Amino acid sequence: ERPDALPRDLTGLRVVISAGGTREPLDPVRYLTNRSSGKQGYALARVAAQRGAQVTLVSTVTGGPLSDPAGVEVVPASTAEQLRAAVLTAAEQADVVVMAAAVADFRPAEFVDHKIKKTEGSEPQPLELRRNPDILVELVKGRRPGQLVVGFAAETGDPGGDVLDHARAKLARKGCDLLVVNAVGDGKAFEVEHNQGWLLTADGAEAPIPQGSKARFASTVWDAILRLSSSDRL
Ligand code: CTP
Ligand code: CA
């Protein structure tokens, strides 16, 4: 996607995007995380800036292989708690908030301030976990008039339902305006260059996102956000 090929149709829009998996520390040398690379969130930020938006990217993967997108304010965060604080602060000034980050659902119940040692001849203690706050739900609760809140869902099918069944239930549970659904598993979505999925809106509209680059996918998401922000319809 060449920047000069994109319309500046997001000019004036203030957007916040979160990206990457959170890291939940267990001790000074260990943490729990997930397979999110942050690539889709970075592509959303890059494309939004290229289309003229004022972009804040709250990222858990600064200093990694992804370079800061041009013209984007990058705010580093690592844990779910840090991401929550940074996103909620930035959201106060935003027209659109996109939660592309893979927030760890749980964190270790306590942070041990020294390296945990294995003890000869005994099995390890079970790891006690606590729930992290649901940032997306908090954003929806605190949404200002006219502000759009966008969630992401990476789903696989299972005996309880297919990808879309799970996604529809998640949209209803979260209460966001738009849910961007990625089909995952079988090498789909995580750590790869291409994505495919669906856009689900609160009014029940559903549109497929064809297989394509993460930049192309990002542009499709911004097209939908633009339509929603101007007409409230997908
Ligand atoms: N999310 C969040 N805070 C959390 C967990 C998730 O803000 N503690 C956001 C994610 O950034 C994403 C959306 O909620 O935009 C959906 O995340 P997902 O993990 O798919 O939803 P969960 O409610 O955690 O459901 P699941 O049990 O399927 O993981
Ligand atoms: Ca989750």
TrEMBL record:
The record's remark on the cofactor is:
Binds 1 FMN per subunit.
Q: Keyword Electron transport, does the record have it?
A: no
User: What reaction(s) does this enzyme catalyze?
Assistant: (R)-4'-phosphopantothenate + L-cysteine + CTP = N-[(R)-4-phosphopantothenoyl]-L-cysteine + CMP + diphosphate + H(+); N-[(R)-4-phosphopantothenoyl]-L-cysteine + H(+) = (R)-4'-phosphopantetheine + CO2
One GO term under biological process is: coenzyme A biosynthetic process
Q: Name one GO cellular component term.
A: phosphopantothenoylcysteine decarboxylase complex
Tell me, in a sentence or two, what this protein's role is: Catalyzes two steps in the biosynthesis of coenzyme A. In the first step cysteine is conjugated to 4'-phosphopantothenate to form 4-phosphopantothenoylcysteine, in the latter compound is decarboxylated to form 4'-phosphopantotheine.
**Protein name as annotated:** Coenzyme A biosynthesis bifunctional protein CoaBC
Q: Which organism does this sequence originate in?
A: Crossiella cryophila
Q: What is the lineage of its organism?
A: Bacteria, Bacillati, Actinomycetota, Actinomycetes, Pseudonocardiales
Q: Which gene encodes it?
A: coaBC
